[in-house]
Amino acid sequence: MLRSYFLALALSLVAPIGLHAQTLQDILQTHQDEVLKPGRRTVGVVLDDLVESGLPQALPFLESWRDREIVQREGDGLFFAVVEEGDTLSLRDLDTGSLIAIPDDEGLTEARPNGGVRRAIGDALVQFQLSDPDIEKRQAAVDAIARSMDASQLEPLAASIPGEQDPDLRAIKTRLAGMLRASFADTPDERIAAIDALSGDLSVDVRAVLNTILATDEAVAETIPDGANVARVLAVGADISADEAYARLVAADLAPPLISKSAIRDALIANIANGSVGGVARAQLNTDEARATAYDALAASTDLPERVTDAAQAEAVAAHTFYLAYAEPDTAITDAAAKALRDIEAQVAVGQAIDLGLDALSLASIYFLAAIGLAITFGVMGVINMAHGEFIMMGAYTGFVVQQFVPDYTLSIIIALPLAFAITFGAGVAMERLVIRHLYHRPLETLLATFGISIALQQLAKNIFGTQARPLTSPEWLDGALVFNDVVAISYIRIAIFVLALIFLTLILFVLKRTRLGLEVRAVTQNPGMAASMGINPDRINMLTFGLGSGIAGIAGVAIGLYAKVTSEMGADYIVQSFMTVVVGGVGNVWGTLAGASLIGFLQKGIEWLNPSNTLAAQTYMILFIILFIQFRPKGIVALKGRAAAD
Asked: Could you tell me the pTM of the whole model?
């Protein structure tokens, strides 16, 4: 409240002297009855005078009036604001702000505006709050205007824009003023210019404004009236049915109403005489045709309304034109709005395609991270490792454990990434030494063994961490999303996963192409016998390769854990997609894995877009597509030469 008085003092120093020739009390005395007992229809006069007065003290008065703190002193009829401080009761002068202590509230009549009046007062307050020093009040005023979108708010909103100091709020005010001008500007040219300016704005509220301008009403006439702004002529049979068309004629008093079967039956029953009605014996009134004949004869001799025949209905419908007419009479305005809306919808379609592409790209990044380790082990060793998903799970839980000891989320992620690699690398080496090495060239036994290990690791995780999902919290700088417009946006976490996938792609290519280990891995992959004859130990390479693939899965688990839930079953959510990625892309090839992840990610998002209500069906269609794809290209997108290709 003190802020309001500082505003009043500031405005009083810069306002013209003639502005204060009339005090706030003078205005209130002119409208005593409306202030004391305001009504929804009468309060507007008081509010208009207060707004036009420009008095800075009108703002605190409106706030007190809205909050039911205004009273009238019976002795002189003056209005005050009641101030209660503990047991002390005071009256505040509405013009000077000085306080008058009083013993009690005797001799005071309280003004009690109802809900509708208080809403009207709130609308008037908006005009004052648009230039309030408190940015929160200015923001609240702008939000109130956006909700109501009333023509009376255009002028004060536009007047407040030049003095707005906050650039973001100024942009919001300018945009909101443009929407108000599109709907309520004084001249058609101003409205059309405002509509044209909105054609590049993809927000939902702008589209709502344009749709409001393009709102239509159903209409029917023998001939379309001159000057009617017709949006569309409706074809009977295509756009509306014949029955619906005749119902519109009846509603417009252009055709008599139909007589229902029940009304015909009731009329016949009421007029039965000597066993017949309308010349038809009662026993013969057992069909709709007979009852219709009897009713027609009865209506011809009585004051009953005549029945409308099918031919008469068809004739009446054919004699009239059914159309949709714009509520806005100016065709230039509706044409501009329709063009702007078409432009926006075209841009929205492009934006939705880009947004879908970004979603597919981020999903492909996740699949690539999940599958790249499997691509190495499966491609080099030919081992079907069903426990690969559990290495992803181990990496995610490693990140969770690190965050329990390192509360700095950024530092914890930096620590968790190499630690997850080390843990899962060791687990992978141990698994290869203890189990896998004894099952080479026995794919069925390898599959069953790794599947059993997968179940054991899941149960171990449940025993340690429980069955509930555990949070792997991302740093604050990964919160939120990169928003391009109201249609295109991508979360920072997905961007980080995409960047991490690129880093992995670069590192793996470097290791395979530029290091001795990579050279030996490629040699063993292409021809293990020749590699052994050149002094390379295939058994050692297999061990390191399996450990490397497992370690990469652990790092992928940390990244995926930031995006998805961390549970003991999370690995199972990615094992199927990982195998599909490797097989579709090409076994043992990094570029093939990248191509397979891209294909599956874009394919899954595309199917989900076509069938958004059923994700299970989308996954089923994706699997069927991949099965068909493999039939035509069994070696994958990028076929590998050497042992894997021969196998």
From this structure: 0.69
